[in-house]
Model the fold of this input.
Amino acid sequence: MTFPTTRLRRLRQSESIRLLARETSLHTQNLIMPMFLVGGEKVKRPISSMPGVANLSVDYAVEEAKRYQDLGLKSVLLFGIPEHKDDSGSSSWDDNGIIQQGVRAIKESCPDLAIVTDLCFCEYTAHGHCGIMRDGDLDNDATLEITVKQTLSHARAGADIIAPSGMIDGAVGTMRDALDDEGFSNLPIMAYAAKFASGFYGPFREAAQCAPQFGDRRTYQMDPANTREALREIELDIQEGADIIMIKPAMAYMDIITKAKEHFALPVAAYNVSGEYAMVKAAAQNGWIDGDRIMVELLYSLRRAGADIIISYFAEDIARKFKGGAVNY
Done:
């Protein structure tokens, strides 16, 4: 039937009716808040390109984690910036390293908060690349050997989920075998399954102090032009034992999120990355947009595209605005 019998505006007449007819939901439980951990005590160093986000010493990270939990968030993602860097990133598998300290401290204070640990080497290496470098190129298989060390160190510290982000071939399978062999068979892996070589990572590299000192990461991160390759990457990670698949970045790759949701029966995560966050914050600070409204609209778009989980620096703002409940637009 058509107008005047059909009037679609009937279901838009009030907030209550709009909520009844809403097709997509967004809740704080869908969100993961990233955190950047550094050494020392009482350190809270604002990140200039990411308003509202700071590098935190472990003591302050515990306080922030408590606050996030009180706001209704259920999970955090930890990145570590060590005091010592070398060519192999050896600080990353130190059982008293910055991530390991952070996991133990946050778990002690917030036992119900799920802690995801980022597993990579770029923050820990002097050259800023995601593994062992040989003659200017990343040595994939040598990197797998140290991936095992970092994986087991995170597991021993008490991580709830480990998220390998380096786009190293075979990483998920290598991690799964190591975890199973060491008695961590129930520990999930959230694979950065389709991580694109993107310009949207700029502010993160300031936050994590991990910009490459030479070359770039296009030999291991994905070409932004490729869709079929992304699906192949995801499929391989699933075959190797991934429990959650992630697409990164989010906004420019919503088609990949949708295809992943359609093709695979695993939870799909989307990483709403630092550059995406910074653009919205900068435009809002200049008065060009309604920042809160755009934030909600953006996160709804990722849910609509198919993301079950959204990693976002907006998570705290959303939780504060909607007090741990459903997010209404």
Summary: Residues 173 and 239 are 8 Å apart (CA to CA). The first strand starts at residue 31 and ends at 38.
